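Table S2 (text version). Query chain:
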Amino acid sequence: MPRTIQNCLHGCAVTTTVDLIGGKWKTVTLYHLLLGPLRFSELQRKLGSVTQRMLTLQLCELEADGLVHREVYAQVPPRVEYSLTELGQSLEPIVRAMLVWGERYQAHSRAERELSAASD
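Corresponding structure-token output:
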């Protein structure tokens, strides 16, 4: 039976997924939250070069889409933690597959560069 690929001109499931987790910081944010809740500053440190404004925006979008939960603890100073919702946790196989693919690609690229350097 031949496999068919859905036409994505009018919004297929792949487009929906990319809309939800696409962008430079969303998938990496989800990856770090797979290990458990993190405070904003912890997440920002793990992401490295993300600005506070961009991380805030990305977290707000992930929260609005139901993938991330924001918990505010009533204490002084206020403490805020971010965690994955059940829906966000369901993305784990996708995020882990992206990790594995990225590692393979990096190894392939390294081997290609070494081969190219050796032939020069």
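Notes on Table S2: Residues 70 and 82 are 5 Å apart (CA to CA). Residues 13-119 form a domain with the Arc Repressor Mutant, subunit A fold (CATH 1.10.10.10).
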